[in-house]
């Protein structure tokens, strides 16, 4: 596929989703079954409006079935399913319409809250629609008005799924057939947001009223080592703190507790709800301004502005006897900003650093933690 986008000054090649692979394979297999002629390539119109021309692989034509594969191309995105083969096997059926099922290497849903109900094969709604529409298109072209059974499989899927979020989300036995646009955009932030959204929805539908949020591994380690909870209790939000809180409100959670390293969470005191450095780095400015308000001397405030890490800045405050007062003030400010952002959602935060351990918390954080423990 030779479609590109420019991101942060880099020209990156687009790819196509497992959903596009499944739909294209089903379309090609349907054509071969109904016409008896081989199909070496297949055109597919994606929901994004980009037309794909894909090579058809591993063709098998039997009397009552046609089977073929499309190879997944993730473009410049580091996707674990890159290069895997997505197969479709197509048969005529006495049941009207297009019936879609999953075979080897395609997962099954075992927990509620996902795109498909419990017990269904993990082929999401948009890929299902793409498969059905493309098979129907072939049926109309050749004048066939009977039923069609489509089975999607991915022989490497069970092994690949162990490298994805599927086991955690409750999808067992293989990968999911995914995609809302049919196209993979390299290093897509939307894919990560979609994962957070799905996991929060699932937790809520499983009865959770209060939720623990952590940006990543540091937070997960702290939850295990110092809070005493299983790290899997937390939903990992990466840098998307604000979006995650919005999702919590969307799903009707009663409360959310954030646990994270000061290097990320100090930014919340400045109203930065995406903590990625590309959106700015105000860590030292926030620490310096609050320290100056507490009476820190100008020359030492200047030193903080040149610190590389928050722990370096805390050492200066410790030397000046202001660390504890600063941390109380920081917790209060983060609590205020969370209140503005969260609305009716109860929210709180606990901050730590690798050097100092626990640093501070917002008002009500302990109560939220207790609710999570009881839940």
If you had to describe this structure to a student in words, what would you say it looks like?
The protein is α/β, with parallel strands linked by helices and 375 residues long. The chain has two domains: 4-184, CbiD-like; 189-374, no CATH class. The chain has 13 helices and 18 strands. The protein has helices spanning 18-35, 125-142, 157-161, 166-169, 189-205, 217-227, 241-250, 262-265, 283-293, 298-305, 310-319, 323-342, 365-374; strands spanning 4-7, 10-13, 15-16, 41-45, 51-55, 57-61, 65-71, 85-93, 98-102, 108-109, 147-153, 171-172, 183-184, 210-214, 234-236, 255-261, 346-353, 357-361. Strands 6-7-8-11-9 form a five-stranded mixed β-sheet, covered by helices on one side. Strands 15-14-16-17-18 form a five-stranded mixed β-sheet, with helices on both faces. Helix 5 runs parallel beside helix 7 and helix 9 (283-293) runs antiparallel to helix 10. The longest helix has 20 residues, at 323-342. The protein is elongated.
Write the layout of secondary structure elements.
Layout: E1 4-7, E2 10-13, E3 15-16, H1 18-35, E4 41-45, E5 51-55, E6 57-61, E7 65-71, E8 85-93, E9 98-102, E10 108-109, H2 125-142, E11 147-153, H3 157-161, H4 166-169, E12 171-172, E13 183-184, H5 189-205, E14 210-214, H6 217-227, E15 234-236, H7 241-250, E16 255-261, H8 262-265, H9 283-293, H10 298-305, H11 310-319, H12 323-342, E17 346-353, E18 357-361, H13 365-374
Parallel strand pairs: 9-11, 14-15, 14-16, 16-17
Antiparallel strand pairs: 1-2, 3-13, 4-5, 6-7, 7-8, 8-11, 10-12, 17-18
């Amino acid at each position: 596929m030779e479609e590109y986008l420019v991101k942060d000054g880099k020209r990156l090649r687009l790819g196509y989703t497992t959903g596009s692979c499944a739909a294209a394979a089903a379309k090609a297999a349907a054509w071969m079954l109904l016409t008896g002629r081989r199909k070496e390539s297949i055109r597919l119109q994606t929901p994004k409006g980009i037309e794909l021309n894909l090579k058809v692989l591993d063709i098998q034509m039997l009397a009552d079935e046609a089977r073929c594969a499309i190879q997944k191309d993730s473009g410049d995105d580091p996707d674990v399913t890159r290069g895997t083969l997505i197969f479709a096997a197509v048969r005529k059926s006495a049941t009207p319409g297009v019936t879609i099922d999953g075979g080897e290497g395609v997962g099954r849903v075992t927990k509620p809250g996902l795109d498909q109900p419990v017990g269904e094969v993990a082929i999401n709604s948009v890929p299902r629609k793409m498969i059905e529409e493309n098979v129907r298109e072939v049926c109309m072209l050749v004048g066939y008005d009977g039923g069609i059974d489509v089975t999607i499989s991915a022989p490497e899927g069970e092994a690949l799924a162990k490298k994805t979020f599927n086991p955690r989300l409750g999808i067992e036995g293989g990968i999911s057939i995914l995609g809302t646009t049919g196209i993979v955009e390299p290093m897509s932030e939307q894919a990560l947001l979609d994962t957070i959204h799905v996991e929060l929805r699932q937790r809520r539908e499983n009865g959770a009223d209060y939720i623990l949020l952590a940006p990543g591994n540091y937070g997960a380690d702290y939850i295990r080592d110092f809070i005493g909870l299983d790290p899997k209790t937390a939903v990992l939000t990466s840098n998307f703190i604000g979006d995650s809180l919005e999702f919590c409100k969307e799903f009707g959670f009663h409360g959310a507790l954030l646990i994270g390293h000061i290097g990320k969470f100090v930014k919340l005191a400045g109203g930065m709800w995406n903590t990625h450095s590309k959106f700015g780095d105000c860590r030292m400015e926030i620490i310096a301004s609050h320290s100056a308000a507490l009476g820190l001397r100008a020359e030492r405030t200047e030193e903080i502005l040149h610190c590389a890490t928050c722990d370096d800045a805390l050492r200066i405050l410790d030397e000046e006897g202001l660390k504890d007062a600063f941390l109380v003030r920081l917790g209060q400010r983060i609590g205020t900003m969370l209140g503005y952002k969260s609305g009716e959602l109860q929210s709180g935060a606990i901050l730590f650093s690798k050097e100092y351990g626990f640093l501070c918390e917002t008002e009500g954080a302990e109560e939220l933690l207790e609710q999570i423990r009881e839940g």
